[in-house]
Design brief:
Elements lengths: L14 E5 L20 E6 L5 E3 L3 E2 L5 H14 L3 E3 L7 H8 L8 E6 L7 H12 L4 E6 L8 H12 L3 E7 L3 H11 L5 E5 L7 H10 L2 E5 L10 H10 L3 H12 L2 E2 L6 H8 L8 H8 L3
Parallel strand pairs: 4-5, 5-6, 6-7, 7-8, 8-9, 9-10, 10-11
Antiparallel strand pairs: 1-2, 2-3
This protein binds NADP nicotinamide-adenine-dinucleotide phosphate (NAP).
The site of NADP nicotinamide-adenine-dinucleotide phosphate (NAP) has 25 residues, from helix 9.
Length: 291
């Protein structure tokens, strides 16, 4: 997988990458509308040495045939990162779409319920079976239970040692809970997936993850009224972009992983078409100010 796109090889949490699409070079300043989607290929470096694409496709609430069709549409457009979870009950449907492409081309995340510690490795084996793969790129504890969940974390680390996942991380954890896991086991989560958007921007949380070398992955970026906020819509109108594209682009410029979900093929494509423009520093600051 090392060849997927520009891995920096720096400490984990570092970001590197490039833009694909017309020209293939990183644009500056002025916005240029492209006829074909210009999908960014920006990565965060993980402790395993593998790269985590900053743009992924979320699959929560996609079920059955719809999950297969939407995931296939995302892969066709150029997403190379898919986010699922045991509780989404769609791993087999997502796996049906993944079966159509080379396993090494895609970064797959799944999650184990935080209260599933008794049989976590069995849960992962079931996930792998449904997804049709011998390993995932990232396995997360979906939410903390029983404090930080040290016992469960030890099972994630064991799965990594067995080659069932390349990296391990958490979701919905506080920085204090992350520190607790590291203190108890010596293993720092590679990633923390938490709710994040301009309306939830928290400089201290972002800096806390960066200082630790934990990749911050945001979810529900498009929910909670962010798409309709006048600051977001104003920037979008001025740049000739959609509000969703502005929000997704804002994550990428902060080096934050973003995983928009959509069932609609046009939205799936346009949400990925964020490599052909750049937010000015003033716009990033204005969006930060919404938090
Ligand atoms: N770890 C956790 O606890 C956790 C919690 C929640 C989510 N997640 C992950 O994060 C992913 C993303 O979060 P999410 O699914 O809650 O929300 P999201 O991706 O922020 O937003 C999805 C919603 O926005 C709509 N949408 C998508 N693109 C749009 C566009 N361009 N314009 C207008 N509306 C658009 C979708 O509708 P249509 O489908 O109709 O387009 C859907 O209603 C999830 O799918 C899941 O993988 C993780």
């Amino acid at each position: 997988m090392a060849s997927r796109s520009g891995v920096s090889g720096s400490r984990s949490g570092g970001v590197s990458g490039s833009w694909s699409g017309v020209g293939g070079s990183r644009p500056t300043g002025q916005v240029t509308r492209m006829s074909a989607p210009t999908v960014p290929h920006l990565d965060a470096a993980l402790p395993s040495g593998h790269a985590m694409p900053l743009l992924g496709f979320g699959t929560w609430q996609l079920k059955g045939e719809q999950a297969t069709t939407a995931t296939a549409a995302a892969l066709a457009v150029g997403y190379v990162h898919i986010d699922t979870a045991t509780v989404y009950d769609n791993e087999a449907a997502v796996g049906a779409a993944l079966a159509q492409i080379d396993r090494e081309r895609v970064f797959i995340t799944t999650k184990v319920p935080g209260d599933g510690r008794a049989n976590a490795l069995e849960t992962l084996r079931e996930s792998l079976d449904k997804l049709g793969t011998s390993y995932v790129d990232l396995w997360l504890i979906h939410w903390p239970a029983d404090g930080a969940g040290v016992e469960l974390w030890q099972q994630l680390v064991a799965a990594r040692e067995q080659g069932l996942t390349r990296d391990v991380g958490v979701s919905n954890y506080s920085l204090a809970q992350i520190d607790e896991l590291e203190a108890a086991t010596g293993v720092l989560p590679a990633v923390n997936q938490i709710e994040w958007s301009p309306l939830l921007f928290d400089r201290a949380a972002l800096d806390g993850h960066t200082e630790r070398g934990v990749v911050l992955e945001g979810y529900s970026a498009l929910r909670g009224g962010t798409l309709e906020h006048p600051v977001v819509t104003g920037i979008a109108e001025r740049l000739g972009r959609t509000p969703a594209q502005v929000i997704i682009r804002w994550h990428l410029q902060h080096g934050i992983v973003v995983i928009p979900k959509s069932v609609d093929p046009q939205r799936i494509a346009s949400n990925a078409d964020v490599g052909g423009f750049e937010l000015a520093a003033d716009d990033v600051t204005a969006l930060d100010g919404l938090g």
